[in-house]
Amino acid sequence: MTVVVRTAESPPDRLAAWKIRAAVFIDEQGIAETIERDGLDDVAWHLVAWEGETAVGTARVLGVDACNRPVAPAGATAVKIGRMAVLPSKRRLGIGRRLLDAALQLARQNALHRVELSAQEYVVGFYEQAGFRVDGDPYVEAGIPHRHMSRQL
């Protein structure tokens, strides 16, 4: 299996990312579409993992300012990685880690040194292996237990 992760540059690439998010978050996890469509996609970078011509994973990288508000990349002081999803049939093959590494590299390329994310509790260990640490108490988002995590680059 050869998987290539690249930034979504075209409308079809962004649609591929959305379809994966819909399949995983809305269909599989039961998150309401109104929550998943949070209005921030237009100011974010989107990464898509491709196996040949098939999109198999995605992640969204959002620039945030010092007050943790979403901003265009030029005004960002950190990034927030989110909406990371891999199709069920492609999980546990290293695709999530490749998406995460690409997101961290995107932050480095834009001279951003702090990375945050909101991890579903069951994947905290995955992010800890990548150098993230848990910040604060557990909380529920979209009916799912989460933990805030961060790391420096």
Run of helices and strands = EHHEEEHEHEE
Please compute the radius of gyration using only Cα atoms. Answer: 14 Å
Amino- and carboxy-terminal Cα gap: 29 Å
Q: What is the percentage of strand-forming residues?
A: 35-45%
Shape: globular
Structural class: alpha+beta
Strand order of the largest sheet: 1-2-3-4-5-7-6
Low-pLDDT stretches:
none
Number of DSSP helical runs: 4
Number of strands: 7
Give the mean pLDDT.
94
Helical amount among residues, as a percent range?
25-40%
Q: What does the largest sheet look like?
A: 7 strands, mixed
Q: What does the oligomeric state look like here?
A: single chain
Polypeptide structure, described:
The chain has helices spanning 11-28, 33-36, 95-109, 124-129; strands at 3-7, 44-51, 54-64, 78-86, 114-120, 133-141, 144-152. The protein is α+β, with helices and mostly antiparallel strands. The longest helix is centred in the N-terminal third of the chain and has 18 residues, at 11-28. It starts with a strand and ends with a strand.
